[in-house]
Amino acid sequence: MNSDDEINRSTQQDSSGKLENPNLKNFQQSQTPQNENECSIKEKIPYVPPIVIDNPKNVPQLLQTLSALTEEIVTGRMISSDKLKIFPPTSEAHRKIQKQITKDGLKSHTFELNDEKKIKIVIRGLDPDDDVSVIMQELARQGFTPELCHPLRHRQSNKNMPLFLVVLPKIPKSKEIYYLEYIGQMRVSVESLRKKQTPGQCYKCQDYFHHSSRCTRDPRCMKCAGNHWSRDCPKPKETPAYTARAITRPIIQAAPETP
Question: pTM (2 decimals)?
Answer without folding.
Answer: 0.58
